[in-house]
Amino acid sequence: MPRGKLENIGIPTLDEDAFASDKKKAEDHAEKVIEIPIHKIEDFPNHPFQVRNDEEMMDLIDSVAKSGVIAPALVRPKEDGSYEMIAGHRRKYACLQNGLRTIPCIIRNLSDEEAVMIMVDTNLRQRQTILPSEKAFAYRMKLEAMNRQGARTDLTSGPVGQKLNSLKSLSDSSDDSMKQIQRYIRLTYLIEPLLKLVDEGHIAMRPAVELSYLEPHAQNMVLEEMEINVCSPSHDQTIRMRKAQEEGKLTDEVISVIMQEEKPNQIEKIRLSSQRISRFFAPRTSVKEMENEIVKALEVYQRYKKRQREKQER
């Protein structure tokens, strides 16, 4: 049987075949946005950033209700078929508040170190309000990840050199100096109640850094003295307490004497022992919350006394 002519049949060249193959490979490896059930996404382990019901969150919830999730979250796959959230914890919460069951995500295979660094960078870049404690643990996590990564790739530097290189790289990629980053990381050694006072603005950065060098028992004593004397330690006071500890001379009595010192700018304050009033409050109630409740109670009592006087005058 005679063969037909092939004049009108286009035969791809080798170059065209290679181009098509490369294009398909690129499409196969390209990251795609996929709707993932929220219940299959776990939070990042020890995520240092809080998800707060503040004004920013209310705006995000409203935005998701009106327009959906504009920027997809970033997750990495886990061996059991679930996913780990890298960037998008607040978007996930906003979706849940709107009753959504899925969230658009980009799935990316990442090492532990890569995941930490992306998680920290995206949160530091995108969040408008960041607490000192959040920055502290974020910087610590990223620096530790960079040190681990550097130890595997740089076999010529010792541990000290690797840490200095990592610290400099971390500073270069942030708005804080190397010294300031070190100060933030020191905050992670504070006991939780003192760290909360730093977040609330009751303890300044420099005194907080000095307090971080004290043993936990000494930190608890400082906290107790703060509550009794209704004051916060100055930088000078914390330096002296740290020095006393280094010399083996820091006792409960020394802390009490230092904390009871009158500061030049300190106005007279009413002092209430926490032991006297703690029974009126739930466990772990902060000093600020106690103060607010006491003021409210006094306002109610004042209105009651006013009504009593008005009855007597009739």
What is the fold's blueprint, element by element?
Layout (H helix, E strand, L loop, with lengths): L13 H16 L3 E5 L3 E2 L12 H13 L5 E5 L5 E5 L1 H9 L4 E6 L4 H15 L5 H22 L5 H14 L5 H9 L5 H8 L5 H7 L4 H14 L5 H12 L5 H8 L14 H4 L9 H27 L1
Parallel strand pairs: 2-4, 3-5
Antiparallel strand pairs: 1-5, 3-4
Helix pairs in contact: 2-3, 4-5, 5-6, 5-7, 9-11, 10-12
Which terms would index this structure?
five-stranded mixed sheet, Conserved hypothetical protein from pyrococcus furiosus pfu- 392566-001, ParB domain, 4 domains, 57% helix, 314 residues, alpha/beta
Give a summary of the structure in a few sentences.
The chain is built from 14 helices and 5 strands.
**CATH level 1 name of the largest domain:** Alpha Beta
Give the percentage of residues in beta strands: 5-15%
**Helical/strand content category:** alpha/beta
Rg (CA only): 29 Å
CATH architectural label of the largest domain: Alpha-Beta Complex
Number of helices: 14
In total, how many beta strands? Answer: 5
- Under CATH, the homologous superfamily of the largest domain reads Conserved hypothetical protein from pyrococcus furiosus pfu- 392566-001, ParB domain
Q: How far from one another are the termini?
A: 126 Å
Main sheet: strand order: 1-5-3-4-2
Write the H/E string, N to C: HEEHEEHEHHHHHHHHHHH
Q: Major sheet, described briefly?
A: 5 strands, mixed
For this structure, the CATH topology of the largest domain is: Conserved hypothetical protein from pyrococcus furiosus pfu- 392566-001, ParB domain
**Averaged pLDDT, please?**
85
**What share of residues is helical?**
55-70%
Shape summary: flat
